[in-house]
Specification:
With 724 residues, this protein is α+β, with helices and mostly antiparallel strands. It folds into 2 domains: 5-272, 7-stranded beta/alpha barrel (Alpha-Beta Barrel); 403-461 and 487-710, Beta-galactosidase, Chain A, domain 5. Helices cover 32% and strands 28% of the residues. Strands 15, 16, 17, 18, 19, 20, 21, 22, 23, 24, 25 and 26 form a 12-stranded antiparallel β-sheet that branches. Strands 1, 2, 3, 8 and 9 form a 5-stranded parallel β-sheet that branches. A 5-stranded antiparallel β-sheet has the order 10-11-12-13-14. Strand 23 (629-641) and strand 24 (646-669) form a beta hairpin. Helix 16 (324-345) runs parallel beside helix 18 and helix 17 packs antiparallel against helix 18 (380-400). The chain is elongated, with a radius of gyration of 28 Å. The N and C termini lie far apart (69 Å).
Amino acid sequence: MPNPIRLILALHNHQPIGNFEHVFQQSYEDSYLPFLDVFSRYESLKIALHTSGSLMEWLDVAHPEYVDRLAELAAKGRIEIIGGAFFEPILAMIPSRDRVGQIRSYTRWLQKRLGTTVRGIWTPERVWEQNFAHDLVDAGIEYTILDDFHFKMAGLTDSQLQGYLITEDEGRLLNVFPGSEKLRYTIPFASPDETIGHLAWLSEQRPGSVCLFGDDGEKFGTWPDTKKHVYEDGWLVRFFDALVANQSWLQVTTPSEAIDNVAPVGKIYLPDCSYREMTEWALPTEQLVEYERITHDMHDDGRLAALKKFVGGGFWRNFKLKYPEADEMYSRMMMVSRRLQDAIDDGATGTLVEEARTQLYRSQCNCSHWHGAFGGIYLPHLRNAVYRCLIAADEILDRLANRPETWVEASADDYNFDARQEVCLANDRMMALILPSRGGMMGELDVRAIQHNLLATLARQPEAYHRKVLAGANQQNENCASIHDRVVFKQADLDQRIQYDKYPRKSLLDLFYDNETTLAAVASGAAALRSDFTHAHYEAKIRRNADRIQVQLVREGMACGVPIKITKGLTLDAGSSTLEIAYLLENLPQDRPLHFAVEMNFAGLPSGADNRYFHDLEGNRLGQLGSKLDLGECLGLNLCDEWLGIDVGLKTSRPTHFWAFPVETVSQSESGFELVHQSTCVQPHWYVTGDRDGRWSMKMQLNLDTSRAESRVTERAGVAVVVG
């Protein structure tokens, strides 16, 4: 008989803020409920379970009976409830005060609802930095779960990973469990016999050890093909049967029981790290391609296994560089977090503070800030949810500050931590974040009435997996492959849809083209840019009146071989839903026209639906928002999303041509490669020549009509009053 060892099964169930209701429900039906049903029958087994706060809130409303069952099993000692940061942020992504606050908040919620003591947390995506130990202990936590990869990167060998270890920061001691990468790949993809065989081998090599499996609960039913494999084909029953059959030497336990009964095997200081695949995804694309090439070339080299324990990938925080849009969400979150803390420091307390804090915490959910095997940052509804929470938090803080009914303000600061100043132009209806150092572009446009950022866009950039798409592979894996090994295409001809952007897909980008440039060339990315304005620095000035503020941006540069000067102004009135935009071009040639365009992008207005469409100034529909438009000699264009309740109108003082086309990415998700609509690009463009002074000017109004959405709110409020 093998020597006794302990096995901890720790599951992590999570759905992000902003995910679709049907995804929550399907995951419940495919994973969470059937797993609990099977597990409940095995009274001698125990598990540890972490459920993210965003998922737990949904479960408590949609399926409170499931949460009641968790409480009952926890009371019997069969499930240890693992806590965490409430809304599953990457801990490196949020300020220390919010780390501690989120953990304490979720601990209180779990203790109140489940009646359980929380001793440990699930570290989201196992992204670890050593100073976290300080915050975790200050938040009342005794242990966390990481991957064995962290410990190997610290220099430990497999033979030294016989249980949990102690780590320390500023004198705070924290227990850390190494999760087994081997078990992550065998459970549930290999046969139960293979897992039991590995554990038996461990018992011979390291008797008395504590081995931990820690991974996503969605592997048991929600991941592609796993529902059939785990439940219909009986994998989970066979696995639990095998655990019961080997209980004479294999004790299935929990993290707290292990800590209470087994001494730590040592002390360790861990490097900044995550699980192995995450460190690879965090690499810049060119470096990830090189990494994959080298590991592929060395696949049959016997030295590779020995080398891997010394090889790490990238640093998680650099996802904010790999995807600038992730940095935008982070920077915006920091604006709100700092504003909330300033209010608290000034003595603010009470319900509004707690409401703002909850919205801030929700916005910190990690899934939209990175990308690997899942859609992540490529999913617009996840990015939209982040901004919805941030805008909601700002509105609450406005109420806390007792702002008047209508107001307007402008401020300049380094909001995105790049050592350059940005300008925030805002009123009671909208907020525009302007980046003078980046082409004078508008990087964010919040519509307060619907809590929506129209510039939550995503630029198209190379991904390492695009090589598979371009190769045209379409491989349907047999059996139940890990999502890391699947190659499946959700649409045809994706290899023809890959293209990359030359600049951020934002608004008020100043472009010059050859005069013969066409919509097809612009939409495909083939059009050459004939100026240096797009990425350049503009000088910014703020002009203030009591109820009207203008931000003026000025730059001299080259366009089509001609030195010209561009001045653009953004003007906003208190109480207004219209942003006035004025352009003045100077030093233009009088003998030939220059092809000038202003790019605007609008995100969160999806394509492919009849109630999301273009229309002209007379209200005539011009096609769904995924259409390509090439309009001549008109004065305006509108984008209407009836579901969201907004009509975005562009109106120009000069007749213009309008190009419009969808911006779509080819990205990887757990179910395969897919095409995702990211934004609708609209470019009014002119063939401009200078007057006798070499000048050309135009004005444009950007109107954000949310009357449809606001009338719905009024109707609902009226119904509530009548019912009450």
